[in-house]
UniProtKB/TrEMBL annotation:
<keyword id="KW-0325">Glycoprotein</keyword>
<dbReference type="InterPro" id="IPR037359">
    <property type="entry name" value="NST/OST"/>
</dbReference>
<protein>
    <submittedName>
        <fullName>Sulfotransferase domain-containing protein</fullName>
    </submittedName>
</protein>
<dbReference type="InterPro" id="IPR027417">
    <property type="entry name" value="P-loop_NTPase"/>
</dbReference>
<feature type="domain" description="Sulfotransferase">
    <location>
        <begin position="6"/>
        <end position="180"/>
    </location>
</feature>
<dbReference type="GO" id="GO:0008146">
    <property type="term" value="F:sulfotransferase activity"/>
</dbReference>
<dbReference type="Pfam" id="PF00685">
    <property type="entry name" value="Sulfotransfer_1"/>
</dbReference>
<dbReference type="InterPro" id="IPR000863">
    <property type="entry name" value="Sulfotransferase_dom"/>
</dbReference>
<keyword id="KW-0808">Transferase</keyword>
């Protein structure tokens, strides 16, 4: 049996529109992603067979993808992708880390994975639900350098473009993957799941979190093709 592995992987980040991105990708008939968040690479062994089973029944010639935003929190992922498929293309969607943390906090408290009485800063300081690591974007990208990836095979994307310029974002992504993609205005206009719902984090907590990330994401610009307002 032929072993199948992903041609591309979206590694995250959580609360940065990865479900919206997944919906755009699976609508393309040239791409196959059987389900979101398979998390196969977090398993200790057997990746090749697990992926082969995952893609069973896939039409020949399609690009095979994996969208699992949990991967960004796992230091082993870059090396596992490299060993599995050194030509794999990697996508990561980046969001203002303060807004991302607040969105995660709102989701986790609603689901009671974080006690509702816990403040945003306390949850962040204790790194509940990997809240800190999920916004350490520079660490994530450097792992791919350390694993020997060609930076041309890594595509960071701006979360803000999902709302402001989704067509340009998808044009950039399709060019990176080497596929054509017909614009579906209705699909692109779909709202992604948002737990902030227009709410803003407490100003004091937001300032503390931004200060915490300032040194940890210093140097991130060298990996990006746009200039985030939050950096």
């Amino acid at each position: 049996m032929q072993l199948l592995v992903p041609d591309f992987i979206c590694i995250g980040v959580q609360k940065a529109g990865t479900t919206w991105l997944y919906n755009q990708l699976v609508a393309n008939p040239l791409i196959s992603i059987p389900e979101k968040e398979c998390n196969i690479l977090t398993e200790p062994r057997g990746h090749l067979q697990r992926y082969t089973d995952f893609y069973a029944g896939t039409h020949e010639g399609r690009l095979l993808g994996d969208v699992s935003p949990f991967y960004a929190t796992q230091p082993v992922i870059a090396q596992r992708i490299r060993e599995m498929n050194p030509d794999c293309k990697v996508i990561i969607v980046l969001r203002d880390p303060v807004a991302r943390a607040f969105s995660q906090y709102r989701m986790a408290t609603k689901a009671e994975r974080i006690p509702p009485e816990t403040t945003l800063w306390r949850a962040f300081r204790k790194n509940m639900q990997f809240m800190q690591q999920r916004g350490c974007y520079l660490d994530v990208l450097r792992r791919f350098d350390d694993a020997g990836f060609d930076r041309r095979n890594i595509l960071p994307l701006p979360f803000e473009w999902i709302g402001e310029n989704p067509l340009a974002l998808m044009d950039r992504l399709n060019a990176f993957l080497g596929v054509e993609g017909a614009a579906d205005d209705a699909l692109m206009a779909q709202r992604f799941a948002s737990y902030t719902q227009g709410a803003q984090p407490p100003e004091k907590d937001a300032a503390r979190i931004r200060k915490w990330y300032a040194s940890r994401n210093a140097g991130l610009r060298e990996y990006l093709w746009w200039q985030p307002e939050w950096l």
